[in-house]
Amino acid sequence: MAKQQDTKKLFENLSGAGKSIGVLTSGGDAQGMNAAVRAVVRMGIYVGAKVYFIHEGYQGMVDGGDNIEEASWESVSSMLQVGGTVIGSARCKEFRSHEGRLKAAHQLVLRGITNLCVIGGDGSLTGANLFREEWSGLLEELVRQGLIDEEAAQNNSELHIVGMVGSIDNDFCGTDMTIGTDSALHRIIEVVDAIMTTAQSHQRTFVLEVMGRHCGYLALVSALACGADWVLIPEMPPEDGWEEHMCQKLSELVVSCLGFDTRVTILGHVQRGGTPSAFDRILASRMGVEAVLALLEASDSTPACVVSLCGNQAVRLPLMECVQMTQDVQKSMDEKNFEEAVRLRGRSFENNLNTYKLLSYHKADSELPNSSFNVAVLNVGAPAAGMNAAVRSAVRVGIKEGHKMFAVNDGFEGFYKGQIKEITWGDVAGWTGQGGSILGTKRTLPAKHLDKIAEQIRIHNINALLVIGGFEAFECLLQLYEARTSHEDFCIPMCMLPATISNNVPGTDLSIGADTSLNAIVETCDRIKQSASGTKRRVFIIETMGGYCGYLASVGGLAAGADTVYIYEEPFNIRDLQSNVEHLTEKMKTGIQRGLVLRNENSNENFTTDFIYQLYSEEGKGVFDCRKNVLGHMQQGGAPSPFDRNFGTKIAAKAIQWISRKLKESYKDGKVFANTEDTACLLGMRRRTMAFQPVVQLKDETDFAHRIPKEQWWLKLHPLMKILAKYKTSYDVSDSGQLEPVTQVRPKKAD
């Protein structure tokens, strides 16, 4: 047997030549659908296929004519930042009939379209699957009716279907997030934040109704993200006597008879509108590219698949298994088997619900367990949006677990100076939506102050430590772990939560704060691109933060539709700069007369932002002019995005539960003694799971000189940005192509 030369599966070997792909959006619209359409069109053209827009969903497929139109590279320009769906969507009764599907098949065969990419909800995808199952019968019928000949039937004998779920409700089983959900959460949270200020001014109670049909995801995650006092969702109907419980809880907030003012706000279609969030653009772009790959690899024997997100990984699942599971949820709810409904909804929904329950009803102090442990929480490094949500969650879960919680101001600087005080349930009210770091944060490392820090641990009898921060927090935990040999006071459970806009911490794919920062970058890029629409022939050079980590530039570039991104992780020289200028010169000859270039602040010490700006200005003379923009600290500020609030809340709750377990395990002879590697951990998201990893084991994975992990998952997304900007590049698709049963997607719980 010949040895396998290379384990990498490269997509250069997949050709779309001679294939035609139809892309349609169906059912309710969702923000991010346009990003998905753009990715399908560009990836399809890139691999040599013809791509067709099918306007107005299945109705356009049935009617044919101008509704089915060949797409060009330029025809999807400026789509990325637009909400809704540019190619239109409609609910089509005709397609539900056999006669309608026969017409649709005829229209597709006329154009040789045998690959369909359907972006919609479970109804749209079920329809597509039925269409595929009937395909050969429909062709036979068309031949019998003389509408097509045998040769046409032969050439179009197989129909391949790949689905992407576009729905703000996030009600489709098999994927953690559907396209549009994150943007809908953005709309909800913007409104909630605005309502909060008026509610506090008048001591009013507000009741908000959100969308979601039979799925409580939007309500549940919004409740987590804004710290709501009560949530009503179909998966968790209130128990008898809930009104009294609710009044008890609210009177904790307003100490008076509950005769106070109540207002109702129904958000309605606001949730579906507006520009897509950075998350939805990236999700949709990844899904769109993955969908084209799935179509290229499809054969007659592979079932129709749906492209899903599991943790941080794109996966392919059998479409009908997911649809069946989605229908099973409704069946369980009808039978009032709510536990089963929650289980079927998937691990993302389950985690959110469990976290909400943990944080919800605060009993009187006398009813709480008493663990007699003291746990300290502090922020380290630069501020990151979502830190406060994490602190709030940690404090409240800690109190519910029976611990006394202590807040440390100004990181380890405040620690050695003794700025440590007990923090209660009420102290952290309203923290979820606050940007920056309320506790204060400093970059000071503990190494020079070990004796004083050890002394403060003794004075306040601190039994465990939760450190929330970026690369400095990782270094702090390492220093404390290594100091255990000389200071027994550091032999306590310690956990770190990654919180930094740079997303440069080893052991995790994502950090608290990075999503908010990406949204700030993308919003600014949108405005900058718009400013060029009048002037034409203009290229913008934009500098992003991130230290040596190119995450913000690279992923921000993918979400903003950049032409080029310069990052430290991908070395570039003067010839590369020259070819980028030539690439933009070619672009200016088309209808798209603007360019966007992102440069990470430390991508190259000699090719500075000024240098690149001057080079482009000189080389582009007569073809385009240049402007430059250094985004600076606006990337660090602002209210946290729903994702960062939710991520911070969930991982902090998980960390405190881990700390509780470690405290119990290490409590012997009246004191806590924890000196093993697995008692100083970082909690991070790795591909599909949340994992606690000993910091000492992450040392080998870290480039300390440049403060970045040696391997970074998002570098796999970097070629996507290039492909969607029309650069020839290599793209490793080793992770793709495995069709998995839905049950396998649910990951094992990682401790």
TrEMBL record:
Q: What is its main location?
A: cytoplasm
Q: Which Pfam families match?
A: PFK
Provide any one GO MF term from the record. Answer: identical protein binding
Residues the record marks as active site: 169
For biological process, the GO terms are:
canonical glycolysis; fructose 1,6-bisphosphate metabolic process; fructose 6-phosphate metabolic process
What cofactor does this one take?
Mg(2+)
Classify the source by domain of life. Answer: Eukaryota
Gene3D superfamilies assigned to the protein according to its UniProt record, in alphabetical order: 3.40.50.450, Phosphofructokinase domain
Task: Give the transmembrane ranges.
Answer: none
Q: Where does ATP bind?
A: 28, 91-92, 121-124
* Subunit (UniProt): Homo- and heterotetramers.
Name recorded for this polypeptide: ATP-dependent 6-phosphofructokinase
The scientific name of the source species is Salvelinus namaycush
The gene it comes from is: LOC120055935
